[in-house]
Each structure stands twice: as structure tokens, then as C-alpha cells.
Design brief:
The chain is α+β, with helices and mostly antiparallel strands and 379 residues long. The protein has 2 domains: 267 residues, Zn peptidases (Aminopeptidase, 3-Layer(aba) Sandwich), CATH 3.40.630; 108 residues, Alpha-Beta Plaits. Helix content is 35%, strand content 26%. The chain starts with a helix and ends with a helix. The model has no long low-confidence stretch (mean pLDDT 97). It binds zinc ion (ZN).
Length: 379
């Protein structure tokens, strides 16, 4: 019964806030393994208090990932989130943990330490009513989501393949809507090799790499199709040494996004088929999609429908939406495992100085998650 979950989660609000404070108080920038591991150690001890069987997945290039298993069933529901943040050590002094006008501020509170705490409270609520002997709950808390999940992707995919459903505790869309579609994200590096020459003495002998790159950048406009959800952004460009030298090298970094797996495949072929337009210039293209699109598949819709029923039983209307940003839900959805994202906290300012979560909806969000998990583990 979802309404009793709401009562449970309201009663446990102090526990929830204490946990959020504890996690935000330990800064955990992705590139600082020691710091991330300090946060992971506290998280692991809190998970152990709930009776989880914990596996630390050791890493050298990132913090250790944490897997926490509840129940002994072979089938499982997977809860996914990350405890690394984009904020450097010392940010806490500049944006301290503070409650103000119904909001809790702090680095990483929305993205996504409050989400982790919500997942733990929801699981407590479910365990207060069910033994998890038919379907278990597994939590996977990772440490490198903010830099592309290089070390965690394989672990995420391995756990997802064994799961009936994946619930991702990234922040909600504005107003609390869940995320049922995410764009796929590709990074490409373009390198143009030209021929250097004295710009004054031998200009005809040179092949200007910057000029060629400029043509490539403009040609990419033809690849972009915003109405279709295809974005192309040349975000970084380098080239040349001095104004009196015809440059023989120019490089560019391009962010490409697409809504469907089919579009992503076409785009990838298009990018790798780019050729130099200037005689004597050579173009090299490297890169590709590191997060496939999360499509709004029938499995995703089924999960959202369940969540919407749980919310309706608590008298609330739950909305859904899409985003151009990626998460680890992109990986699990692309495997064909039903995935629902944006189940974390409601707030604003991820990666921004005003990062905060709304306090009032926290109990409802935990109860929503608990009700959804209950449906998944008992059906
Ligand atoms: Zn983030």
C-alpha cells in the first residue's frame, strides 16, 4: 500500500536528511580517488546497517564501485546511481550545506546524493513489508558517471542483464517528471593535416589546415537536424602556430547527440565518412557514441505506467519527459532492459552554484520509489 509507504517515509524524514547530510559532507570529485573512496566507505557502512551484502568493485583509475544486495532471490530489480560529483575539493566551503526556504543546498546534493538516500529509504520501506525472497533489490553505486562511466559501464551492464528492471535515481525533470527518453551522446575528434609554408614567401606551397577545418565545421550544419533531435556542436577548436605560417594542423572536438539507435548508427557512419574538401589536405575522424540513446521502448512505458499508478494511489499525477543529457540509464535501456530514469530528487542547479533539492517532495519521492519497487518485487 503506497499510502502507508508515504507515512513510513514521512516518519523517517530525519533519517533521510541525516543520510543526505552525511553523503554531501564528504566531497567526492570524480578525479580524486581517495576522496571518492572516503565517501564510498561511509556509504558502505550505511548500507551494511540496512543488512545489505556489499561488494566493493576495486578500481585504480576511479573510486571503488559499490554493489549492495538485498534478499537472496536470483531475480532482481536494479537501482543505479553515482556518488561522484563534478565539484572539486573545497567547494563545500563555497557552497555549504544549508537549508533555506524549503531547499537543501550543497555540492552534489541533487546530482545525486539525495537520490542515493531516497533509494535506501525506499528499500527500507519495502523491506518493512516484504522479505525480498522472490525478487531481490540490488543497488549499484558508481564513481565515474560524471566523466562518462568508463570504468563502471561493464559492471552496470553486467548487473542490468540480470535484472527485470532498472531504476535510475538521477534528478527528476522540473516539477518532478520522470525521464523516459534520453539522447545518445557521441564525441568525435577531427584532425586536419595540411602543408605548412611561409605565408609571405611560398603561400602557393601551403595547404591551410585551419581553412579546411572551417569548411568542415560549416559542412556539419548539414548533419544537424534539431527537429529530429540530432544536435551537432563543435565545442573546441585548435590550430596554427603564427600568423605568418600556413598552418599544417587543426583539430576540433565535436559533441553529437541523437534520439534513436537508428539515427545514432547513421550519424556515426556519416561522421566517419567525412573527407577533406581541399586538395592536399587530409582529414582524420576518431570517436563515436559513448552513450547510446535511451529510447522510450514498450518496456520503458510499462515501467512508467506502473510508477504513474503508484503515484495516483497517493493522489498525485506523475508526468514524463525526455532530456538531451545522458546517464547510466542509457546503457541499461540500450541492452533492452526496461529502465526508468529521473526517480531521484526534485530540485535545480545540477553542476551549478545554486544546486539544491526541494525538501517537501522528498518523502513522496521515496514512497513513490518504494511503491514501484514493491510492484516489481511482488508481481
Ligand atoms: Zn551530473
Amino acid at each position: 500500500m503506497s499510502s502507508s509507504f508515504l507515512a513510513f517515509c514521512r516518519d523517517e524524514r530525519p533519517w533521510l536528511l541525516d543520510l543526505i547530510h552525511a553523503l554531501v559532507a564528504i566531497e567526492s570529485p570524480t578525479d580524486d580517488k581517495a576522496a571518492v573512496d572516503r565517501c564510498g566507505t561511509v556509504l558502505a557502512s550505511r548500507l551494511a546497517e540496512l543488512g545489505a551484502r556489499i561488494t566493493r568493485v576495486p578500481q585504480t583509475a576511479a573510486g571503488d564501485h559499490l554493489i549492495a544486495r538485498f534478499g537472496t532471490a536470483a531475480r532482481q530489480v536494479l537501482i543505479v546511481g553515482h556518488f561522484d560529483t563534478v565539484w572539486p575539493i573545497g567547494q563545500l566551503a563555497r557552497m555549504p550545506i544549508v537549508e533555506r526556504e524549503g531547499r537543501l543546498h550543497g555540492p552534489g546534493v541533487l546530482d545525486m546524493k539525495a537520490g542515493i538516500a531516497l533509494g535506501m529509504l525506499a528499500t527500507r520501506a519495502v523491506m518493512s513489508r516484504h522479505a525480498l525472497d522472490r525478487v531481490g533489490v540490488t543497488m549499484l553505486w558508481t564513481t565515474d558517471e560524471e566523466t562518462g562511466s568508463d570504468t563502471s559501464r561493464a559492471v552496470i551492464e553486467e548487473e542490468a542483464r540480470r535484472s527485470d528492471a532498472v531504476l535510475v535515481l538521477e534528478p527528476a525533470l522540473a516539477g518532478g517528471a520522470l525521464k523516459t527518453a534520453r539522447k545518445g551522446i557521441a564525441q568525435y575528434q577531427l584532425t586536419v593535416h595540411g602543408v605548412s609554408a611561409h605565408a609571405g614567401v611560398d603561400p602557393r606551397k601551403g595547404v591551410n589546415a585551419i581553412r579546411e577545418m572551417a569548411q568542415q565545421v560549416l559542412a556539419l550544419d548539414a548533419v544537424r537536424d534539431l527537429d529530429r533531435g540530432i544536435s551537432v556542436n563543435v565545442g573546441v577548436i585548435h590550430g596554427g602556430t603564427r600568423s605568418n605560417v600556413v598552418p599544417d594542423l587543426a583539430t576540433a572536438e565535436v559533441d553529437v547527440r541523437a534520439e534513436t539507435l537508428a539515427d545514432a548508427a547513421v550519424l556515426d557512419r556519416t561522421m566517419h565518412a567525412l573527407v577533406a574538401l581541399t586538395p592536399g589536405a587530409r582529414l582524420k575522424v576518431t570517436g563515436g557514441f559513448n552513450r547510446p540513446p535511451m529510447e522510450r521502448s514498450p518496456g520503458v512505458v510499462r515501467l512508467f505506467t506502473l510508477a504513474r499508478e503508484v503515484a495516483a494511489a497517493m493522489g498525485a499525477r506523475l508526468e514524463e519527459g525526455a532530456t538531451g543529457g545522458g546517464s547510466d540509464g542509457n546503457f541499461t535501456a540500450a541492452l533492452g532492459v526496461p529502465t526508468l530514469d529521473g526517480l531521484g530528487a526534485v530540485g535545480d542547479g545540477a553542476h551549478a552554484l545554486h544546486e539544491h533539492v526541494e525538501l517537501e517532495p522528498l518523502a513522496f519521492r521515496a514512497a513513490l520509489l518504494a511503491g514501484l519497487i514493491e510492484r516489481l518485487v511482488t508481481e
